[in-house]
Amino acid sequence: MEATVSNTGTEGKVWGGGNKPLKTSYGKMMMWFFILSDALTFSGFLAAYGFSRFKFIDSWPIADEVYNHFPGSHGDNPMYFVALMTFILIASSVTMVLAVDAGHHNNKKKTTFYMFLTIIGGAIFLGSQAWEWTNFIKGTHGAVETKGGQILQFVDCHKEDSHGKLLRVSVEDFAKVSHKERVQHKSKNGLWFVSEPALPKYSVQDIVTGFNSHSNLAVRTQEIMPNIERLKASENPADVTKAERFERMYVNADKTGQKGVLTRAESEKALKDAVVYVKGANLVHNEYGNRLFGDFFFFITGFHGFHVFSGVVINVIIFFNIILGTYERRKNNYEMVEKVGLYWHFVDLVWVFVFTFFYLV
Amino acid sequence: MAHDHGHTEHKLAIFRGRLKFKSNVQKIWGVLIFLSLVTIVEVGLGIYKPSFLVDNYFVGMKYLNWVFIILTIVKAYYIAWDFMHLRDEKSSLRRAVVWTAVFLICYLIFILLQEGTYIEDVKTNGYVKWNF
User: Fold this and answer.
1) What is the dotted CATH code of the domain comprising A22-139+294-360?
2) Measured between beta carbons, which residues in chain B are less than 8 angstroms from residue A349?
3) Which residue of A has its CA nearest to B126?
């Protein structure tokens, strides 16, 4: 160990850089400053999410309607799964801090055990996130996108779900598949240097035909219903006109906070602008609403997931080093466990914010 | 070794000294229970959405969202102070990390949300029409 410590002759001297005003080692301090910079990166992402959300405040997707899956259950279960993920991460944070504490007491056995639990917790979290992504990418009901980039979803006007909203209907349940000449261009049977992505399952015409033969259906737009009474009572004539437009176009104009459901006539008119069938999500289209919504979801939860992944990898390395006795030989109370612990807690800290801004607010 | 580790001694009181623990391990479990309670409250509010909190606004945001954000900051505080041991660090290190983040993030949030709101205003009250 002595070989790695350089004596500069300035130990204890204030101006020689020999004393430690912050009473902490170089490594730990650098970990703190790395965390600070990473915190600013995540804040940048989340603030950008907030920017886009405030920009489209009247039409942003409602989180409860997007993330409502729970393993082994088909119903509408908002929140439960992410709440579970939050608990898993907090629990793995606790095992981490217990490992740090055991390290401070130079208890190799306990440190190893708690590091192992932390790794397991991280792995379960990553698995949960993969499941969450799968559901997001696969989608549930499908929708159509219009020329202007708006998403039109479908509801049954005669049925309500458990939250008192008109029941969502999957495009698959009513679209009429017609015979199509057009097939996907593949390089093996066409131009070898040209390829195209898979064609949508339904053409817009299939959906419109199906829609016309089901008179109970209506189109749901992204627009969120404002407090219509407040708008009508407003002094500003623009607000009154706005309220009139809402009452003319939407059947649920009185339901503040719900997504607007168009009248049958308005629905048919809106479908004239539809250009493509969208199911699930990718970086360009998503069935949930604003295009940016999918992008931010993938980017921010992905960046966080990448942090968790690298955290697990680092934890595994540290775990084996503990077993090999590397930190025991260093005789510095397992400081490396403390440093990687700081990173791991930071990942948990970020998740607390992601949880709030993606799922709660 | 020449390294000085002052971390075997921990400050064991939370809630401004109202709740004292006997050992660091006990404090860790105590903080876990507290964080879990806060999360349960958040999830409960997220599922039931009391109308009083949803219908009333403060500085352009629902009461409910304010509650969520404040509870999130409370959770962040206990994670940083007790799990990341900021409570046990020298105040100069704590301030260097925390205040830097707080000032920069507040500025960032202010400027971006302000601009987002402005653009929304131009979009809805300006010239962009919602006619697909």
Assistant:
1) 1.20.120.80
2) 76, 79-80, 84
3) A238
* Domain positions in chain A: 22-139+294-360, 143-179+196-279
Range of the domain at B103: 90-132
CB contact under 8 A, A96 and B69: no
pTM of the model: 0.90
Q: Which residue of A has its CA nearest to B34?
A: A90
User: What is the nearest CA distance from B43 to chain A, expressed in angstroms?
Assistant: 7
Residue at B18 is within a domain: yes
Domain contains B61: yes
Q: In total, how many domains does chain B have? A: 2
- A69 burial class (0-12, 13-18, 19+ CB within 10 angstroms)? buried
3-state secondary structure of A12: coil
Chain A residues in contact with B65 by the CB 8 A cut-off are 360-361
Q: What does the alpha-carbon distance between residue A205 and residue A16 come to, in Å, rounded to a whole number?
A: 78
Contact B54 A257 (CB under 8 A): yes
Q: Per-residue pLDDT tens for A205-243?
A: 999 999 999 999 999 999 999 999 999 998 988 889 999
Cα–Cα distance, B73 to B107 (Å, whole number): 17
